[in-house]
Amino acid sequence: MKIRSPNKFKDTDSFRARWKEIDGRLDLDDEVESPGPLGSALEKGGWSLSNRFAVQPMEGWDAHADGTPSEETFRRWRRFGESGAALIWGGEAFAVVEDGRANPNQLFHRDSDQSCRTLESLRQAITAGHDAIGNEAPTASVVGLQLTHSGRWSRPTAAGPSPRIAFQHPVLDERVSATSEQLLDDGELELIAERYIEAAVCAQKAGFDFVDIKACHGYLLHELLSARTRPGRYGGDLEGRSRLLREVIAAVRSAAPGLGVAVRLSVTDVIPFKKSQQGEGEPDWPEGEPYPHGFGLDPADPQNPSWSEPMQLITMLQDVGIEWLNLTIGSPYWCPHRQRPAQYPPSDGYPPPEDPLVGVAAHLQAARAVRQSFPQLGLVGTGWTYLQEWLPAVAQHEIRNGFQDVIGLGRSMLSYPELPRDIIHGRAMPKKLVCRTFSDCTTAPRNGLLSGCFPLDDHYKSHPAAAELKSAKARARKGNAR
Ligand SMILES: Cc1cc2nc3c(=O)[nH]c(=O)nc-3n(C[C@H](O)[C@H](O)[C@H](O)COP(=O)(O)O)c2cc1C
Ligand code: SF4
Fold it and tell me: Is the minimum distance from the CB of 416 to ligand 2 under 6 angstroms?
């Protein structure tokens, strides 16, 4: 499929024409103002933010084996602080138990002593980033920590997947060699819930303003939301499927009064995709067959989002005190083209089966749908990086119209963390730093290496892992990738 990259559109009108072809309800502003709507302050849901940018959580697969941060981890967090974004949503996924790590180099909660020290040093890295940018630092900011259990996607050692699943999935089980042996029983879920609470208490002691109880991207608390086939307290109807998430939120609020609690939610899903024999991305589910395994999908018509359950869930989350949500879609494991729209796939992915702008549009429409039903809720949107040069004008349009409150930036914060400050202060974006969605930051960890922006960040260009990444990509091209 031939894709015209956003940076090939020379003027606003030609990009607008394509953007409207993708979805007639979308638009962008003609001029980006400085400081403008993106540089405007917001008071909402107990948070004060001096601008409308957030850094999304992004792991680097670079912690030490004992779960403590490395120099690479600190550098990334410092750079997140140097972005000047008023909201740091989570830093990166912090596993609440050692076995719940998605990779052997993920930060994790070993015990309260170690976590308190680790988290304090990471919190200080954000402050150091703010200090380094002087009067461009946000005058009002909020910093959170993302808590996770990787569930089906647990891979705590180099030996391979070590899944713990919420229910048996006819396609995804095979991808991680899961069987009924790996089903977590209710008692095990409740023990995991206790670890969320311990980790949250440490986050509060370390100076974080909030914790994100991660319910996205296929990890445990997200998988439970689609556990329709699971019997017992934590499956079946939406009440049961959302029970553990709600119990964790309530327990954290009671154990750590004053600590904010928020949720990053895959608010809708996509059926699993795979690489076809011709090398294209294609659905890994028979056409026309009901798909009961997606949250925010109608089992009888799984091609499009179904908003009924997500809206009910959000009401339930409000009932346990949630005032901020970070909205995302699907998972990087089974629908990367939607979760992180990209022109170039990671080595375990597939070429985009659609213009990646369709994925960006899906993220923006998800935020608009939630906004319409929940005007009082604080909303961070996702999926922004692929817009490249058009990111500021589209972002200003969405903020100016109140479709979301904060623009959550992912990959662009790895290649070009100064982006929020440059936009707010009316400076041009240096072309050579704009993320072109080469996906090396995903390909590297998929091949057992640390993550980073190898193509554009000088630190990683000259990193010893860069040569290994090159060989891994060559192997993948020959079809020999792991
Ligand atoms: C290298 C890398 C690491 C990521 N780690 C996390 C994570 O720890 N937690 C999370 O919720 N999302 C994670 N994500 C997803 C991003 O937060 C974001 O949703 C995604 O990149 C799409 O946003 P973008 O288009 O701005 O990049 C990661 C993405 C990348 C590329
Ligand atoms: S490696 Fe760099 S350019 Fe490629 S997707 Fe990641 S951040 Fe973007």
Answer: no
pTM attached to this predicted model = 0.98
Which one of 53, 55, 56 would you pick to mutate in the ligand 1 pocket, going by the greatest count of ligand atoms within 8 A of its CB?
56
* Residue 441 near ligand 2, beta carbon < 6 Å: yes
The per-residue pLDDT for range 337-375, each reduced to its tens digit, is 999 999 999 988 999 999 999 999 999 999 999 999 999
Q: Which residues of 114-134 are buried (b: 16+ CB within 10 A; e: fewer)?
A: ebbebbbebbbbbbebbeebe
Q: Where are the domains of the chain?
A: 28-434
User: Exposure pattern of 416-453 as b/e (b: 16+ CB <10 Å)?
Assistant: bbbbbbbbbeeeebeeebbbbbbbbbbbbbbbebbbbb
> Which of these, 233, 405, 423, 440, lies nearest to 327 by C-alpha position?
405
Nearest ligand atom owner, CA of 76? 1
Q: How far is CA 436 from the centre of its chain?
A: 18
- Please compute the mean of the pLDDT values over residues 378-400 and round it to a whole number: 98
Give the number of the atom of ligand 2 that is nearest the alpha carbon of residue 412: 7
CA 239 and chain centroid, separation: 25
Among 23-27, 280-284, 379-383, the minimum mean pLDDT is found in 280-284
pLDDT at 480 over 60: no
- Work out the angle between the directed axes of helices 356-373 and 391-400 (0-180°, nearest 10): 10
Task: State pLDDT tens for residues 278-326.
Answer: 888 999 999 999 999 999 999 999 999 999 999 999 999 999 999 999 9
From the CA of 57, how far away is ligand 1's center (Å)? 6
CA distance linking residue 457 with residue 71, whole number of Å? 16
Q: How far is the CA of 173 from the centre of ligand 1 (A)?
A: 23
What is 28-434's CATH superfamily?
Aldolase class I (3.20.20.70)
When pLDDT is averaged across residues 86-104 and rounded to a whole number, the result is: 98
Q: What atom in ligand 1 is closest to the CA of residue 214?
A: 11
- Ligand 2 proximity of 435 Cβ (cutoff 6 Å): yes
The upper half-sphere exposure of residue 241, i.e. CA atoms within 13 Å in the direction of its Cβ, equals 22
CB of 123 sitting under 6 A from ligand 2: no
